[in-house]
Design brief:
With about 500 residues, the chain is α/β, with parallel strands linked by helices. It has 20 helices and 17 strands. The chain has a ten-stranded mixed sheet, sandwiched between helices. It starts with 7 loop residues before the first helix and ends with a helix.
Length: about 500
C-alpha cells in the first residue's frame, strides 16, 4: 500500500518527471486521469438522469473534458460547464478539443435533482477562496443535494492544508491520482472528500521515490518492521521497563491509566513513581504494576540507577510547576550516562504546561546529542503553550506547524486531534487518518502516552513508536465504538496487538 503523501508541488513534479521519462506525455496522463474518474461515475451512478461536468481552465479542467467525452461515448446525458478556456497549446486545450460536448458558461450553471455533478474546477492546487461563478455552483449543488464526484480534491479545499477556502463542494467520491495529498487527510478537508479513490494513472513508484517525500499517511507500512515482538528467550527486563510518574492522592488515576497501557503494549515491567502521600492510594489499585516512592529528583535518580528503566511518562495528573520541570530535566540528563541510560521520555499534559514560560530550557535539554528521545503529545491548547508563535501563524497548516515545532524542540511532536500529526526533527511527518470520535473522553490521552512509552521501552525508534501508538490507539477506539471510556482502552488494544505481531512476523519472515 502506498503511504507517501505528496504536496501539490510534489505532485506537479511527479507529473513532470513522468512526462520526461515516458511512456506517457501530459495528455496521456490526463486521459488516464479522466478515465479513472469516468469509471467511478459509471460504476456508482449507472441510473443518473444527467451528469453535469464543471471544468476549470487548468489541468483539473482538462481531466473534466476527458470525463465528459468518455461519459458521452458511454451514452450518458452530459452537460459541460466551463469557467474560462484552457490556455492555447496546453494539454487541457487538447483535451477540450477532443471533447464533443459543447461547453456552456459556468455563469449559467443550473441543475435539477437526480443529476450528478463532476467537479473538475480547481482540484488540489487551489490557493485562494472560491468566488463568483464557482462559489455559486457550490451553493446550487448544496441546495439540490447533488451527489458530487470530485477530481483530485473538492474545489474549495486546500490540497496543502485541508482548509476550506471560502466555500467547497462536499463530495460523495473523490478520485485522486498516484498518492494522497495532505488535504485528503487533514481536517476539515478529509470530511469533504467522501470516499477516496486512489487511481493509478501511470506515475510509477520509482518516480515518487525520486521526490524523497517526507510526509506519510500513518498506516502500518511505515512502522510495522519496527513493531516489537518478544524473542522466545525474552524476560521481563529485556522487554523494557517503563516508569510513570503519579500525581498526589486525589490525582493518581491518570498515571495508572498510562501505566496499564504501557504494560498492555508489551513493556516487561512498569513502575508507578508515586509521592509518599499517594502511595497507599496507588497501592490499593495496582497488582501487576509495581510501585515506588518518588518525592524528589534524588528518589528518581535512585530508581534509574537501581532499576534501569528505558522510558518514562511524565505529566498525566502530575501537576504544573517546578517539580515537574525538575523531574523532566533530570530524566533527560540520564541519556548521557553509560549505565542506567534512559532511552525516552513521553511528556504530556501537565508536563508540557510546566514549561510554558521556559520552553527553551526543555528544548535545549532535548537537543543534546545523546539525550533520550523526547516525545511531546500536546493537544491544540498545550501546543500553543510551548509554541505560541507557530500556533498563531494562520498561514501554516497543522502539518507545517507540527513539523516546525519538532525541528525547534528537537523532539517528536504528536499534535493530537481527530487528524493527529506526528512529526520528527529530521522533517519526517505522518498524518493519522483513522481518528475515532469515541476517543474524545477523559483519560484517552493518558493511555496514548503509556502506549508510546511501552513501545519506546521495547526498542522502537521514537518516531515509529509514536506513529504506531497513535494508529493503534485510534483503531482500538473505532473498534470498541460507543460507550468507550479510557479504562476500556488498554484491554481493547490486545486483539490489535496480536494482529500486528502476526503481520510483523509475516513481513520479516
Amino acid at each position: 500500500m502506498s503511504n507517501e503523501v505528496l504536496s501539490p508541488a510534489e505532485m506537479n513534479e511527479a507529473d513532470r518527471l513522468t512526462i520526461s521519462a515516458g511512456p506517457f506525455d501530459g495528455i496521456g496522463l490526463m486521459r488516464n486521469a479522466g478515465g479513472a474518474v469516468a469509471a467511478v461515475v459509471l460504476a456508482h451512478f449507472p441510473a443518473a438522469r444527467r451528469v453535469h461536468v464543471l471544468c476549470g481552465p487548468g489541468n483539473n479542467g482538462g481531466d473534466g473534458y476527458v470525463v465528459a467525452r468518455i461519459l458521452r461515448d458511454s451514452a450518458v446525458n452530459v452537460l459541460l460547464w466551463a469557467s474560462g478556456s484552457p490556455k492555447a497549446g496546453s494539454d487541457a486545450a487538447l483535451a477540450a478539443s477532443e471533447c464533443p460536448v459543447r461547453p456552456r458558461p459556468l455563469s449559467e450553471f443550473a441543475a435539477d435533482k437526480g443529476s450528478i455533478l463532476v467537479d473538475a474546477l480547481y482540484g488540489a492546487g487551489l490557493s485562494k477562496p472560491l468566488s463568483g461563478d464557482a462559489a455559486r455552483a457550490v451553493e446550487v449543488a448544496t441546495e439540490l443535494n447533488l451527489p458530487v464526484v470530485a477530481v483530485d480534491l473538492p474545489s474549495g479545499v486546500s490540497g496543502e492544508s485541508g482548509r476550506i477556502l471560502g466555500q467547497a463542494f462536499r463530495a460523495q467520491f473523490t478520485v485522486t491520482f498516484a498518492r494522497k495529498k495532505p488535504g485528503h487527510l487533514l481536517l476539515p478537508g478529509r470530511e469533504m472528500c467522501g470516499e477516496l479513490v486512489l487511481a493509478d494513472i501511470g506515475i510509477s513508484d520509482d518516480i515518487v521515490a525520486q521526490l524523497e517525500p517526507l510526509t506519510f499517511e500513518n498506516i502500518s507500512p511505515i512502522w510495522l518492521e519496527n513493531f516489537p515482538v518478544p524473542a522466545v528467550d525474552a524476560h521481563k527486563y529485556r522487554r523494557g521497563h517503563v516508569g510513570v510518574f503519579s500525581g498526589g492522592p486525589s490525582a493518581t488515576g491518570a498515571a495508572r491509566l498510562s501505566a496499564l497501557a504501557a504494560a498492555r503494549s508489551g513493556a516487561g515491567a512498569v513502575t508507578v513513581l508515586s509521592p509518599a502521600n499517594a502511595v497507599q492510594v496507588n497501592a490499593a489499585h495496582l497488582t501487576s504494576i509495581m510501585l515506588k516512592k518518588a518525592d524528589s529528583i534524588a528518589d528518581v535518580q535512585e530508581f534509574i540507577d537501581g532499576r534501569r528503566p528505558s522510558a518514562f511518562v511524565l505529566g498525566p495528573g502530575f501537576g504544573v510547576g517546578e517539580k515537574t520541570r525538575d523531574f523532566a530535566l533530570g530524566v533527560l540528563a540520564n541519556g548521557e550516562r553509560q549505565d542506567g541510560r534512559v532511552d525516552g521520555l513521553v511528556l504530556d499534559a501537565d508536563g508540557i504546561s510546566s514549561f510554558r514560560d521556559a520552553p527553551e530550557v526543555l528544548f535545549e535539554a532535548a537537543r543534546r546529542p545523546i539525550a533520550p528521545a523526547l516525545v511531546l503529545t500536546p493537544h491544540e491548547g498545550e501546543f500553543a503553550r510551548l509554541f505560541a508563535d507557530i500556533a498563531g501563524d494562520k498561514s501554516l497548516s497543522k502539518l507545517a506547524k507540527a513539523r516546525a515545532a519538532a525541528a525547534r524542540a528537537g523532539a517528536i511532536v504528536v499534535y493530537k486531534g481527530a487528524d493527529t500529526v506526528i512529526a520528527a526533527p529530521d522533517g519526517r511527518a505522518a498524518i493519522n487518518g483513522n481518528g475515532a470520535p469515541w476517543l474524545a473522553t477523559a483519560g484517552s490521552g493518558d493511555v496514548l502516552s503509556g502506549v508510546i512509552a511501552g513501545f519506546l521501552a521495547q526498542g522502537m525508534p521514537a518516531f515509529e513508536a509514536a506513529c504506531a501508538a497513535v494508529w493503534i490507539h485510534a483503531e482500538a477506539g473505532s473498534r470498541f465504538g460507543p460507550g468507550l471510556i479510557a479504562e476500556d482502552l488498554p484491554l481493547a488494544l490486545v486483539p490489535l496487538l496480536l494482529e500486528l505481531a502476526e503481520n510483523r512476523n509475516e513481513v520479516t519472515a
